[in-house]
């Protein structure tokens, strides 16, 4: 299996975990009667951090769908080599993948922090804990965050692979000089 | 200037920003009289997220100090080339640098999220905002978080550079095969 197919399958995994995270979180809600009179509904809209995580995960999943299409639909050479792209495209993919993984990771960390506060409260700031009242809701959020970490792990591997595909085109001797004095096409097919 | 020196200077920048973040946050405290009777002191210990950020930044700064020593003290060849390390060391540096940047970024994002809650409060959860009372404290935390983002940016560049130095040793044609059939030493000095 050539490297483009490997990348495609990794991105498929990432999409699965991202969509799972977004769905688990987005469809999580619990209604509870407080003080026998007030009805209170908990959903991911209550906290900005969860709201952003759902939409960022959805956006990065869509971005990866485009990459999967590229990986599986554009034909490679018979030797399983990459002939489809010039090194400039690799730079673009490198930057986009880095941006994707850091964005998802930031949203994930913020959501974990907000959930930790909701779980434990902060006594010195008089923020009370909430998960003793919305237990099932909080357990589902916890599951979603675990899936989110799986997605981040796969995205880290994907972004390393995209760095690998870019940087192996460069000379091991001189800084930022392509291997040999060949043009793009020749370089990629050698 | 060869690539090892470049890396050394980048890591120096990262250390400066990391130490600045940790100090701005660690030495930030404000005491205020609430309700004319209760004296209340705000410090970074009040929130776990800020506490962890200070210590993680300090740890990653120390790790980078070791790298700076390596970059400037171990001699390179006359051509400014890297002769000091085998490719296995590059793999180690690659993994450690990735771990460092993701750890700092996670701590940074969590601290930003906690600070956002402290700044705006979450009305639906009855978490009240705090920064209207501890204004100077909160402004200094904000400055520290800005420095933290600068540190993360530099660390991202450093980790890309470390990926570059590793992956350029590999063949552009075959997956994870070193260039040519040379041994480590020969490869790095060619």
TrEMBL record, chains A, B:
<feature type="transmembrane region" description="Helical">
    <location>
        <begin position="90"/>
        <end position="119"/>
    </location>
</feature>
<keyword id="KW-1003">Cell membrane</keyword>
<feature type="transmembrane region" description="Helical">
    <location>
        <begin position="49"/>
        <end position="69"/>
    </location>
</feature>
<keyword id="KW-0812">Transmembrane</keyword>
<dbReference type="InterPro" id="IPR006702">
    <property type="entry name" value="CASP_dom"/>
</dbReference>
<dbReference type="GO" id="GO:0005886">
    <property type="term" value="C:plasma membrane"/>
</dbReference>
<keyword id="KW-1133">Transmembrane helix</keyword>
<feature type="transmembrane region" description="Helical">
    <location>
        <begin position="12"/>
        <end position="29"/>
    </location>
</feature>
<feature type="transmembrane region" description="Helical">
    <location>
        <begin position="139"/>
        <end position="164"/>
    </location>
</feature>
<comment type="subunit">
    <text>Homodimer and heterodimers.</text>
</comment>
<feature type="domain" description="Casparian strip membrane protein">
    <location>
        <begin position="9"/>
        <end position="153"/>
    </location>
</feature>
<dbReference type="InterPro" id="IPR006459">
    <property type="entry name" value="CASP/CASPL"/>
</dbReference>
<comment type="similarity">
    <text>Belongs to the Casparian strip membrane proteins (CASP) family.</text>
</comment>
<keyword id="KW-0472">Membrane</keyword>
<dbReference type="Pfam" id="PF04535">
    <property type="entry name" value="CASP_dom"/>
</dbReference>
<protein>
    <recommendedName>
        <fullName>CASP-like protein</fullName>
    </recommendedName>
</protein>
